[in-house]
Amino acid sequence: MSPEKDTPNDFLGLKAQRETLRLTLQDISGLTRISLVNLEAIENGAFCHLPAPIYSKNFIKSYARELNLDSKPILDSYEAYLTSLQTIQAPLPEMEPPPEPLIRRIAPYKVSIAAASIIIAVIVVTLIIFQRREPVPSVVAPPPAIIPAAPQPAVSAPENPVQQAVPAKTVGKPAGEATDPPPPQKSVAAVNIPPGHLPLVEKKAPAVASSSGADLLVIKATEEAWLRIRIDQNQPFQVLLKPGEEIKRTGTGFELDIGNAGGIRMQFKGKTVENLGKSGEVIHLQLP
């Protein structure tokens, strides 16, 4: 039985056109290299037997070209067929998965809560250990503000009483005899120190070999430090050093009140003074 028999209808007059041209399906298959099954499906409008659309559309165009026909009506029918398939084969609504057991739903939350609890516990323990290791600083009152002493002209004694007494010693000496100058005397001024925090520790600086003349004292701050300095029995003065600042003074003797012994570095006569104290410690120091 030939493939062109038993056709239920003449789809779009394709078969009649082929017969008018005196062509068989075998002839068209030889010209287009399209199988007889696909040619028969196109001619009968049985698009369900055709392969994927990308191949079927090329088959339809080749078939129509051999019959000297416009392929558009056939392609339109094929597109309508594809559209009907999309409507028929609409995806069914997805079935919702069954709910997970209550134990499985609770388990992740338990794991998260346990992990968070462990992290918090580690942080708390670390803070406690750190606070125990950290030294407790001494409670030290803030250093008093630097207040200049008010001048007291009526109370203060003459600056150099020894020099004022010199004329009395030279009376009665023969004329022309050289008068020895009096030895220089250090003036003793009244100490006027503003009330402040008393030193907690009194230290004696390490002995340093003395030399003739004034000695150089260099103080450099590594932390903020308050100092009260008295040089050669003169009027004491106060200073507040910031980190990195330093002062230099010369004299034969120094008395120092230091509000932060661990926050300064000191050199006296070119040598470093060691073991001044801890940070925040208040000391009294005498040099040499």
Can you describe what's shown?
By secondary structure, this protein is α+β, with helices and mostly antiparallel strands. The longest helix has 32 residues. Helices cover 33% and strands 16% of the residues. The relative contact order is 0.09. The N terminus is likely disordered. Among the domains are: 78 residues, lambda repressor-like DNA-binding domains (434 Repressor (Amino-terminal Domain)); 91 residues, no CATH class.
Name its key features:
4-stranded antiparallel β-sheet, disordered N terminus, 5-stranded mixed β-sheet, alpha+beta, 33% helix, 8 helices, 288 residues, 434 Repressor (Amino-terminal Domain)
Give the DSSP E fraction (strand runs of 2 or more residues): 15-25%
Give the oligomeric state of the chains in this entry, treating copies of one chain as homo and distinct chains as hetero.
single chain
The largest sheet, given as strand count, sense and whether it forms a barrel, is: 5 strands, mixed
Instruction: Kindly state the percentage of residues in helix.
Output: 25-40%
Figure out the total of helices.
8
**Which consecutive residue ranges, at least 5 long each, have pLDDT under 50?**
1-8, 153-202, 204-211
Overall mean confidence score, pLDDT: 74
- Main β-sheet, spatial strand arrangement: 1-9-6-3-4
How would you classify the helix and strand content by structural class? Answer: alpha+beta
What coarse outline follows from CA principal-axis ratios?
A: rod-shaped
Number of strands: 9
The run of helices and strands is HHHHHHHHEEEEEEEEE
Compute the separation of the termini in Å.
135 Å
